[in-house]
Backbone:
């Protein structure tokens, strides 16, 4: 089995090193093609207006001067011209990708691009800030990841779907189990701005992002992580809201 790894935290990120160790338990044909630098929150950005360079760091180890989506495209179209991978793994992200986060996550985007190019894809993230840990418990993802991925591969999933896996920020033994969830929705606004005065006049802004808990219902990715479970959420790229189609057809097309 040929596996392609990518991420949005950058080629040197600890989460990618953890994912590489996990993947090597699944296959002896593991490739890495990830952004040179931090690309968090780039969503499905594609570098259409700048050249993208591919850099080789070792056998099957590459980085690109671009986004997670760029990384997957370059790998598929150049590195894998002879044989495309059987699986794309994106992550492990330094922090959760839950609820509304998934729409701007570069980790999710890497998996979506793999899916779009015909390869089963999984995005993996490690939550932080919920269980009171002072540091990210990478060992939790590394301990639970291999078996979970093996099980998911053996079961399979639809070709137009990616799987978003979030590990709770707890100890290895503290993981309560696995829950298959739906994308949640927070009951407060996460984004904010810090407006500051510029010493040469005018103002500038730092965009900020909160991390407080909401109160999500059971069955959501948020609730699973809050309660110490591994969350597995099937996602797909079709953002159409079917109920609104029916409403608009009834009220607009016949007006």
Residues:
């Amino acid at each position: 089995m040929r596996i392609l790894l990518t991420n949005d935290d950058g080629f040197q990120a600890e989460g990618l090193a953890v994912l590489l160790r996990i993947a090597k338990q699944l296959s002896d044909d593991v490739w890495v093609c990830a952004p040179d630098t931090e690309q968090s929150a780039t969503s499905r950005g594609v570098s259409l207006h700048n050249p993208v360079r591919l850099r080789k760091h070792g056998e099957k180890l590459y980085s690109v001067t671009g986004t997670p989506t760029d990384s997957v495209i370059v790998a598929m179209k150049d590195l894998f011209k002879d044989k495309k991978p059987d699986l794309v793994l994106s992550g492990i992200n330094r922090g959760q990708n839950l609820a509304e986060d998934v729409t701007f996550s570069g980790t999710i985007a890497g998996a979506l691009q793999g899916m779009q190019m015909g390869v089963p894809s999984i995005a993996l993230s490690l939550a932080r800030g919920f269980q009171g840990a002072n540091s990210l418990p990478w060992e939790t993802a590394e301990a639970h990841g291999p078996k979970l991925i093996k099980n998911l591969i053996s079961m399979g999933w639809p070709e137009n779907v990616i799987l978003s896996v979030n590990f709770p920020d707890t100890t290895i033994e503290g993981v309560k189990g696995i829950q298959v969830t739906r994308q949640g929705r927070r009951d407060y606004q996460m984004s904010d701005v810090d407006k500051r005065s510029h010493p040469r006049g005018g103002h500038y802004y730092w965009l900020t992002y909160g991390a407080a808990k909401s109160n999500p219902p059971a069955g959501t990715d948020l609730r699973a992580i809050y309660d110490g479970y591994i969350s597995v959420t099937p996602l797909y790229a079709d953002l159409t809201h079917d109920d609104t189609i029916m409403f608009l057809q009834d009220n607009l097309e016949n007006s």
In short: The chain has one domain: 2-185+214-253.
